[in-house]
Amino acid sequence: MESVRIAIVGSGPAGLSAAGRAAERGISHVLLEKAPHLSDTIYKYQRGKYIMATPDQLPLRSDFPFEAGSRENVIGAWDDTAAAKGIIVRHNADVVSIDGSRGAFILTMKDGTAINADFVVLAIGVQGNPNKVRAPGGDLPFVQYQLDDPKEYFDENIIVIGGGDAGIENALGLAADPEQGNIVTLLQRADGFPRAKEANAQALYAAKNEGRLDFITEATLNRIEKGGSGESPYMAVVDTKDGEARMPVDRVIARLGAAPPRKFIEEIGVEFTGPDREAFPVLSPQYESTVPGLYIIGALAGFPLIKHCMNQGHDVVEFISGNTELAPPDTPLLEALFADAPVKRSVDDWIEHIRQDVEILHDVSPLQMREFLLSSDIQFKKRGDTIINRNDIGSSIFAIVDGSVRVQIDPDDKSKTVSIKEGSIFGELGLISGRRRTATVVADEPVTLLEIPRNATLKLMASVPGVKRRMERLSMERQVGQLFGRLLSPKAIDEILAGAEFLSLKAGETFIQEGDRSTDIFIIRQGSAVVEKKIGGKNVFLSYVLAGNYVGEMSLFYEGLRTASVRAAIKTELARLPGEIFERILRESPDLRRAVEAQVAKRRRLNDYIEAKRESFSSVVDMHSEVARFLLEEEGLSEATDALVIDETLCIGCDNCEVACADIHEGISRLDREAGSSYAYIHVPTSCRHCEHPHCMTDCPPDAIHRGPDGEVFIDEKCIGCGNCQRYCPYGVIQMAAVPPKKPGLFSWIAFGAGPGPGEPPKEWIASKKSRNGESPPKLAVKCDMCAGIKGGPACVRACPTGAAKRISPNEYVKLAGGGGED
Amino acid sequence: MAIRVEFIKRRPGGRVTVKPKLYDADVLSLGRATNCDVYLPDLRVGLHHARLQRLNDNRVRLETDEDHRMRVNGALTRRRDVHVGAGADIRIGPYQLTLTEAETPGDLLVTVELVEASTAVGEATDEHEVFSMKGYAPDRRVSAWTFMTFVFAAFLVLPVAAYFMNAGAGPRDTQEPSQIATIGNLSWISGEMSSAHANLVGNCRDCHENAFERVRDETCLTCHDDLRNHAHMDVLSASRPTHEGAGVWLATVREGLSIPEGRCGSCHFEHNGPEGVTPSSSGFCVECHQDMDKRLSDTELVNVADFPRRHPEFKPQIVTEPHPVAPIFTRISLVDRPKESNGLIFPHEFHLKDPEVARKVETLGGDAQRRWGDELECADCHRLDAAGALFQPIEMESECQDCHSLAFAAEPDAPVRSLPHGEPEEVKRVLEDFYLAQATAQLLGDNWRDTLSRQLTADDRARRQRLRDEAFENAQTRARMMINRLFSEDGACQKCHIVKAQVDPEEPPEIVPVRLTNRYLPKAVFPHAPHESGDLDCGTCHRAEDSKESSDVLLPGRMICAECHNDDRGGAAIASDCQTCHIYHDDDAAPFMTPAGRSAFLLRRTTP
Amino acid sequence: MARFTDKNAPAGLPIQHEGFLRHRNFRWLKIAVALSIAALLAYLIADVEPRPNGGTWIGYTLGAISAILIVWLTLLGVRKRSINPGKWTLKGWTSAHVYLGSSLIVLATLHTGFQLGWNVHTLAYALMMIVVLSGFFGVYYYATVPARMSDNRGQRSQVELLEAIRALDRQLRDAARPLDDQYVREVKRAIRKTKIRPPFFGSLKSVQRSCATDRALKRLVRAAQTADEDQRRAIEDVKAILQRKSALLLRTRQHIRYKMLLRLWLHIHVPMTLALLVALSAHIISVFFYW
Q1: ipTM of this complex prediction, to 2 decimal places
Q2: pTM beyond 0.90
Q3: What is the DSSP code (8-state) at residue B344?
Q4: Alpha carbons A454 and A430: distance in angstroms, whole number
């Protein structure tokens, strides 16, 4: 039985790099890859996919080359290096079990062969094995689990199984060009496409309406059998909710997701940090798992980024070969980070210090600490320094490592402050509500602050459940505090929080039903809600409640009867505070009661007003409610911070707004005036709303999307044109466009129509683009940036000759609507 | 014995897909209908367009239904038998079919391929095409340029060209500018020319000699060369008011617009219609005259603002000393009730009213009777002159003599002599001669021819001598007596004339010379003719009927004029501006002409 | 709470857009009126020799103001197209353009002193009047058409209108396959010969009637009554599509008409403006050329 010093399982970036190191050091090794080729996951990326080399600042420490580029280039380079370095690879070696421990591991393959190894480096990633088609005929050659290039298939009856993003994207790709003459059918087990991105699902429905493809929901593949006409020899038998359906099939593309490898790893005896799905194996700083001699690196260890993985691959071999002194490659960066600290500490001490001090970071592993510290910033402030100002735009959170700060709770009276102690955090409200900073924070004594950008924080919360838990608890505490001023005793707050329950609602879900009997109070932590009242059978829009406010207190004053319905305007995070507790607390603290009563009085006035006016103004009121519904819910202004709204009674369709936009943004208009829906002459064109929680930011590989100082969401030059943002944006306001060159002056055009007109790219440029429509110039994502930094503000509004164009933010809208809100 | 049909599709990139279909029959139907064996889904293909029938191993018949045709090997046909070996190209609508032998012997191979695009669907009409104004209205840029060019050529280039076409020859040049130039000039003319200058209309350069230069005074003076200045230049400038208040601002505006003062052009505006260029309002005069004393301390001119309200009483020139050669005129305001001494005795009242005068007139017979009518009126003596402005001078012979005859006879039956008027010496001589003649006649009455003197006695001679002497003696005294009577209180002369006391009895008495004023207001113009209108008569203004003395000045006062010449009277008002009576340029045109008459006059002179 | 009604009662819209006519609460209207009145008073008060016209000091003043105005108003065309940064809004400019432009009627007329003739000066005046009046049309259409246009267009964008028509054509092509050839001919004509753009004149109704699509439709309606069972089904399909298309065509043509209304006046306004500019310069030059 063959025996090596290091057995490396998985030839992904991590594994490859490890093998490379081993080969370099002349250590006997074997690289076990279950696929017939190296680094399967990346191999399976769609053709031409651009691969990032983030984090940029992190130095690459590996014997394999790696720089950002197309999938082909990356893989090509690796294959060459692997060959050059004489790495021993065993393909189609699917490891099914690993037994033994340091010095004596036995790895068994699927084909029964086994290998002895002193050390095992597990680099199998999280992709695991794609779920197979179990139905009879699933093993036929034309059943495949990936789609390399949809353009390669012509005139085929193709069945795509699985309504996830992968499946939908493949199906759309195959049906995109009618010239290909593919007949595409997508099978989805569930009813609808809950797992898919909204954008993708919509694209799919659109495609079906245009008859480009077909999909069957609540359908499963029963079997594939011979038969059918001369054209396609096989028939697929599909179970649908209305019986069995037979259809000719030339190709099956199954996108059924993959089984995470956790089970397999636990069998080996490796422990995980926790039970939750996101948990990672427990590892030493040298990546050694709880099984001595077995190292885990790469995505499996919680490092999705290729560069990390490659570095780890290199390091782990170094460790194994006894080089324990080796500092992680990011150390110099981290040292730089702490360079101007008043107290000198080693990077590791710092990390440990922060982890111990800052409450929310308690259950973050040192490795994860290192990672997010790279993207974070350490600040050392003197006493009295202002850290954030009220109404700043900013969504990063601050953790107080040493010292303490003061929060000015009353904008009018600077002296009213609350202290936030060491180890706590602040600025999390911006993170949650996506709105401007609510208070000014000043250093109370020399403080050491850790500023974590929004994305890093979200990543952290996603990967470390503990962080999420603590954050939620903390922010709730704060919100309750904010809402009820300082009127609540800490005890009371604790009590409420103890009873508090977090809910997450989809847009349009009602959580308070008019007429019900309940006194629960809801704090809107994220998103926003619409308060409506049934009047004469019609729902009348009362008010619009932004994140950070609470609803439901009215019932306390109407013997627990709900006087209006409240429902989520967009995806909304709520906290329910049990009514009885709240009632008791109200009884106990009269001034709190007064505060709440004041709030109630205001809302009651609006109620009565609507009631009173309903005859005289019914039409107005209806119209108002309708428009409110249209804007806030259909057009998603409820999550907007700044949206373009056009009055169609004024719009003459001159498209000067587009021209202006294009003119000011190198020839590409960021808005489409005509597109987008209208109601009662209010037209919301397709242009960015600068959402509180921008969907486009969800997954930007180069992290090129940011919120600017004026609250604008913009894409910076790091964009690589992957198109993720475009797919994520539910309002379709991001376009992938080639950026045209600069153009000459205006006069020649006005006078002689010579040269490009306003907002037009140069003619020859257009021509050149038309001619080789095959591969047009590289495209980048472009979107509205609110004309940030341009004097006079958004060009679209300035350039509207009739005043039809106008930008509004929901706060304004709330004011216009005159209801609730904070006025 | 089967027919194999292959549907061929070509893909971008030269890729070809073939979908074979096998028929075990001898007849194939081709068409648009779904039930056709070879289904050709295109609207250009008939429902059951054609059928392909196999006659035997190597012959095939192709035929279409009655209302369609096909191309077989390029030929348009309804029916055609083809030899399988030879094969055939068939064209049905957009489809290309080829008919050949298949590999498997005896089988027939038909390939079907769509070689044209299927029925064109409204080819992707370009949005900008459909929704553009193309075809509805001409392109804005084009029409803009067209209009601009036209206007530029016709209204800028042409007139400027016209400027260069006819050189500035001044207003006196007579040669007519070319047609085209005239048109160009006319297109720039800013308003109708005054009738006076109408002849200059064709050529701007007659007056505007140089481009971008205001019309120069010299140019005006080429014709109006005899115009004298209103006053001496520096007096003029001295009298011009220094602007204050709003005036300052106004003046600066004027200055800014370079409308200089003191030019011909500052008062005379051309291109304002035929009414002429003479300013019609008092504005310009009043500007200086309303407070002239402020600036000209030594002037005796009284300030004038407007006629009815601020204008001095008339100051006629009055004869104070009717000297034969140099009578003395003094200007005395009517306020001071001036008396004239014009040397004439003529009570208007008497002549106009007294019945005796009437009776006297009746006694005249013949022509006289016809001329004077039965009683006297102003017009009988005062007759308008040609210009209709003033009156012909009063002459003794024509106006007075009919009544006041200078006829003279010694005895009633003696023949009548009339004495000459105006020469007392002559009168004396006439009378002396007359009486001497009379005496001589008597002397000759004695018959002394028959007796010669030597025959006479001394006594007779003495008596005769004495008689002679008596006769001449007598004649002289009679003559002297007659002269004295003539010039005496109740003599004929003193009816009208003042006779000085006699110094030397031998000499005839001296008569005060008569000086009648014919123009009282030398600085103003008063045309009588235009005033003879409506119920106006002389009496309306001149109080002659009750003037007992010829020393009365019968000139009406200012207020009488102001009765009518008063812009206060609104609609009924009659021009009361300075120009109505006064003339700015004190030229030698007959001063008493009406403004219209003047310009006519001046015009007559300027155009030879 | 009053805000609620006050803001929305008039328009019924909870979002108030301030149109170019009401810009800054009619600021430019006020200015324009003030300007006109001032000019009128000046004209009446000032007594000038020999009569009010362009040559008098007030004439010059009014003329200068008008000329400057005209040039400035013309610059709107440039402003609209040069979106350089700055605190301006085109709306404000339009507002000023409209009201000051209208005040020109007063200013320029007073400038002429009612002295008109067949010359460049009156030409300039006439052109100006044409421009201003055509401008009034523009304002009228801008104020009235957009709402109607939006009603007519529904939620569709004009490209979508065309797309829809094309899609229907495609459907026609396929749906017509089973039809008899005689009908197919009609359908083919309906597909190929349908002109979307209505002619300049003529009511849309008549345009519709003469349109190939409608003819085909009529034909098929007649056919439907006689046709046999299986044919009828096909015919009914095609008929339905044709009806949809015809309806769509009507909307599209209506849309084109509206767009025409919104633009046509510009094809007078703009060229005349430029002609005016030249005439104006000629006018000014002539005045000082023959000073």
Answers
A1: 0.74
A2: no
A3: B
A4: 9
